From TrEMBL:
This is DUF4212 domain-containing protein. Residues 11-86 form the Sodium symporter small subunit domain. Keywords: Membrane, Transmembrane, Transmembrane helix. It comes from Fluctibacter halophilus. The chain crosses the membrane at residues 20-42, 54-73. NCBIfam families: Na_symport_sm. InterPro entries: Na_symporter_ssu (IPR019886). It comes from the Bacteria.
Length: 88
């Protein structure tokens, strides 16, 4: 991976870390917030016959985690292209 300038290198890693922190925040809200803190509120809502809080704790969080992986790949490919370090 070769950057044109040192500023590009710093900006690339700043964008990378920013993306990771945003995705980790979503992960935290879904896993801890919806699965633990808001479970009583969410259990008042039915989703496919299950209480929503239970569903988030058992399955919903997993779906969100997998979606976050795909979002990370897409966004990192965009960042790589922006800084000219993509693999294509």
């Amino acid at each position: 991976m070769a950057f044109k300038t040192e500023e590009d290198k710093v900006a690339y890693w700043k964008d990378n870390i920013s993306l990771v922190l945003k995705l980790l925040a979503i992960w935290f809200v879904v896993s801890f917030g919806c699965g633990i803190l808001l479970v009583d509120v969410l259990n008042n809502i039915q989703f496919f016959g299950f209480k929503l809080g239970f569903w988030f704790a058992q399955q919903g969080a997993i779906y969100v985690f997998v979606a976050l992986i795909f979002v990370y790949v897409k966004k990192m490919n965009e960042i790589d292209k922006r800084y000219g370090v993509d693999e294509e």
